[in-house]
Write a structure and sequence with these properties.
This protein is an alpha+beta fold. It is 37% helix and 13% strand. It has 27 helices and 18 strands. The chain has an 8-stranded antiparallel beta sheet with strand order 4-3-2-1-7-6-5-15. The chain has a 5-stranded mixed beta sheet with strand order 10-11-14-12-13, with helices on one face. A 3-stranded antiparallel beta sheet has the order 16-18-17, covered by helices on one side. Mean pLDDT is 77; it is low at 1-48, 389-402, 501-524, 530-539, 728-747 and 798-809.
């Protein structure tokens, strides 16, 4: 592959220069900075200028500032701030946080001051002072190098601040205590532990409370197991939780006798039980069998035998028990010289003893150190500012020089890290298979039972129980198997605890080993926060045990000490420090993060189907060949590789887009439903309007017919009818009572008030003669004389009208009639 050419037309980045070019004055990007201006700015500024930075956390305050600092890894210039929580590196001008140069103080393993002498052939070489460098080694797989201009005294100020802040003498000096719980309050972890025990016992309906803990009423049981409060004051075992599950058939007195046979009194207890079958996963420390491997304890053997309950299908047949020793066999035998060792199968019902061959914390620490050096040497953002291509004349991550690639892979294998990971995964899968396939019980232990044992039982439970693959279940698993059962987080991560400050160091490989040649940057002149290379393993308990198992966010929160969940070495120590009341909670923080992104959040596995994987997950042996974890191992050394390798990110982005489209679809469907409902309402209203219109037309037709009939009837009487309509305002009803005329008030369909006036007038003789109805009436009327004179003139042709026209006779008119004799004369 042809190497990329340096950009033309602009200043070349530092990594494109050779060693001689990079160190000569005026030829690198270092000297493009306006140092005089930066020095003036640094001398005339105070920490108050950064007090209102938006990137500062709650209770985070700036201690020291450094201007014109160069991040050698990426050749970026900016401002370096040391706060009471972290080192902040801000880009020049924009004050944007540079993630690679920003590291929490508790995550710093060690830091060194180095000086890189400028090599120049010029006669003025004596006037070129050496570069002032500060190398910071992190526990999260990164090595950062900051460059300071000589004669500014900024490096001294930053170094002194790191000496004061990175290694607090007391646990209460950590940032999490200064910040307090804030909005991420921590509920009592003891309640959550009891709720998990209740779930395992099949009593999920019972909820734990502080009252229950105080009065000791949490000791529930089922037909096989029970919760013991024997360790409520931590007198039985100081590194065990206040409550644990044991066989129901074992009394507290027998537990007291059995604990003395196990290292640190960590007797065998139940960490998980399979619902329905009675199979369990138990954990403990190594038995104290002695140098001759001949020491026994009847109480310990009885306790372990109680895990072999009867099989449900075959009454009388005992369940098989496996004893899984996480250590290599030779290490277990070597522990016999110190009183430890491993069980004898003949003393435990011929239970098979299986050794997983997982190395101790010291081997893990050295392997982790070699892996970090390898990534720094062969990564894209190295601590010496040179890419892998320039250092090895060929890409080591994307093809190129075959011999360089082979050497790179060989060095990765020499670190041993992937072998350690494979051993842990294989051991956990073996335990899960024994429980799921054979319905057997397994007792797991190592030396003290809080490192390799914790890794194995937590991963095995994750494979067996679908509940632990949920957010709530994963929290319960970590709090039970890692926190409650005493994984020494303070010792393993190098944090201070109750007894004093943490003591740790990851020894770097020297150039004499032939594996990782040192660069000039790595030649330190003064160091802080580390031990001498002659420190014995017995005094150094730092080891990346938790790093081998859990997630990036967990690791970042753990190493930064921002929250109090992982402080101290045991539940007892956290209770003594009042961690739950004084510090923030990582679970509340992660829940808050997930609430902002729902199912598209990084904590959600887009490939996991809970309906499909609702039982044990037993991975085949071929899948237990691990590779580097890009999101953690490569995020600093090869950030582009980490992004490209993360197919989950792409899937998560697609799911986020799909989620947005689903929301748009639901909103559109709701809008369509609203429009459909409105159209149905309008259709119903239109139908009602049509019916009313048809009814109105029919009424109009009837009214027209009646009007015509009335008109004809009135006209037959020699009268004329006139209808007039006028709009009037509402008037009191009593006004109508005083009106003698017939003037009915009507309201039209639009709700307007109107008066209809009816007037009847006599027709003139001419019109009367033209009235056809009148002529018919005169011809047919029996009261007409031959002369054409009406015999009953005041009757108003009532008889004829009522007979032929349909009018009602006004009988009141008879009272007003005057009787003439001529009416009764004979013709």
């Amino acid at each position: 592959m042809t190497p990329p050419r340096p950009p033309s037309g602009r200043q070349r980045p530092l990594r494109y220069y050779s060693d001689s070019e990079r160190t000569e004055g005026g030829s690198g990007s270092w000297d493009t900075l306006e140092w005089n201006k930066l020095d003036q700015t640094a001398s005339g500024s105070s920490s108050t200028s950064f007090a209102n930075l938006s990137c500062l956390l709650e209770s985070e305050r700036v201690i020291v500032e450094g201007y014109g600092v160069v991040l050698i890894n990426t050749d970026e210039a900016g401002t370096l701030l040391v706060t009471n929580f972290r080192i902040l590196f801000l880009s020049e001008g924009t004050r944007k946080v540079i993630p690679l140069g920003t590291i929490p103080l508790a995550t710093i393993e060690k830091f060194n001051k180095t000086a890189l002498k400028v090599q120049s052939n010029n006669r003025q070489s004596d006037k070129n002072p050496p570069r002032r460098l500060l190398q910071v080694t992190g526990k999260d797989m990164r090595i950062i190098v900051y460059g300071f201009r000589p004669k500014t005294k900024q490096r001294r100020s930053v170094f002194d601040a790191l000496l004061r802040c990175t290694k607090p003498e007391r646990v209460w000096d950590l940032y999490t205590f200064a910040c307090g719980p804030s909005k991420f309050g921590n509920a009592n972890p003891k309640e959550r532990l009891l709720n998990e025990y209740f779930r395992l016992l099949g009593k999920s309906s019972v909820r734990a409370s502080m009252d229950m803990i105080e009065d000791g009423s949490f000791t529930l049981e089922n037909e096989l197991w029970r919760i013991s409060d024997l360790n409520s004051n931590y007198n039985l075992c100081q590194t065990y939780p206040f409550a644990f599950m044991v066989p129901k058939s074992i009394s507290d007195e027998e537990l007291l006798q059995a604990c003395s046979f196990r290292a640190k009194c960590r007797l065998p207890v139940i960490t998980w039980c399979q619902p329905g079958s009675g199979a369990v996963i138990a954990r403990s420390s190594q038995p104290l069998v002695g140098l001759m491997m001949n020491m026994r304890s009847n109480f310990d053997e009885k306790l372990v035998a109680a895990f072999c309950t009867q099989l449900g299908a075959n009454k009388g047949e005992r369940r098989k028990l496996y004893i899984a020793d996480a250590r290599p066999r030779k290490n277990a035998l070597a522990n016999g010289a110190m009183g430890g060792g491993s069980e004898s199968s003949s003393n435990y019902f011929q239970s098979p003893i299986v050794f997983f061959g997982i190395d101790n914390i010291h081997a893990m620490r050295e392997s982790y150190s070699r892996l970090r050096d390898y990534l720094d040497m062969h990564g894209a953002t190295s601590s010496d500012g040179r890419s892998s291509f320039l250092r090895h004349t060929g890409w080591t991550w994307g093809g190129g020089n075959l011999s360089s690639m082979s050497a790179s892979v060989s060095l990765l294998g020499d670190s041993g890290w992937l072998i350690h990971i494979q051993n842990v995964l294989a051991g956990a899968a073996w335990i899960a298979a024994r429980v799921a396939v054979e319905s057997a019980s397994v007792l797991v232990h190592c030396s003290d039972g809080w490192d390799r044992t914790t890794q194995l039982v937590s991963l095995a439970c994750l494979m067996l129980d679908p509940y632990y693959r949920t957010f709530a279940g994963f929290q319960a698993l970590v709090e039970k198997d890692w926190l409650a059962f005493g994984h020494p987080f303070s010792d393993r991560v190098g944090m201070p605890n109750i007894s004093g400050s943490g003591n740790f160091d990851l020894p770097r490989q020297s150039s004499s080993a032939g594996s990782y040649p040192s660069s000039p940057v790595r030649q330190s002149t003064q160091s802080g926060g580390s031990q001498s290379s002659s420190s014995s393993h017995a005094q150094n308990n730092y080891s990346p045990i938790f790093t081998q198992t859990f997630l990036v966010d967990f690791m970042d929160c753990l190493l930064s000490c921002r929250f109090g969940n992982f402080l101290c070495n045991s539940e007892k120590e956290r209770q003594q420090c009042a961690i739950a009341e004084a510090c923030g909670c990582i679970w509340a923080y992660l829940t808050d993060l997930r609430s902002l992104a729902t199912t598209s959040h990084v904590h959600c596995n887009p490939f996991y189907d809970p309906l499909k994987y609702d039982g044990p997950l037993l991975p085949p042996a071929a899948s237990l060949s691990p590779t580097l974890w890009p999101q953690f191992h490569l995020r600093w050394a090869c950030p582009e590789e980490a992004k490209a390798a993360d197919i989950e990110v792409q899937c998560r982005a697609m799911r986020a887009k799909y989620s947005e489209m689903q929301k748009d679809k639901e909103a559109t469907e709701r809008r369509v439903d609203e429009i459909s409902f409105a159209m149905e309402s309008l259709s119903a209203e239109l139908l009602r309007e049509r019916r009313m219109s048809w009814s109105a037309r029919e009424s109009a037709k009837r009214a027209t017919k009646e009007y015509r009939a009335l008109t004809r009837a009135v006209q037959s009487l020699g009268c004329k009818v006139n209808f007039t309509t006028s709009d009037v305002e509402d008037a009191p009803l009593e006004n109508n009572n005083n009106n003698n005329n017939s003037n009915p008030r009507r309201r039209d369909r639009q709700g307007n008030n109107s008066d209809v006036s009816v007037s009847i007038s006599l027709m003139s003789e001419e019109n009367r003669s033209e009235n056809q109805v009148g002529r018919v009436c005169e011809a047919l009327c029996p009261l007409r004389t031959r002369e054409g004179v009406c015999r009953w003139p005041e009757a108003g042709c009532a008889h004829l009208g009522s007979q032929f026209v349909g009018l009602k006779t006004n009988f009141d008119a008879f009272d007003r009639l005057s009787i003439h004799e001529s009416y009764f004369k004979s013709e």
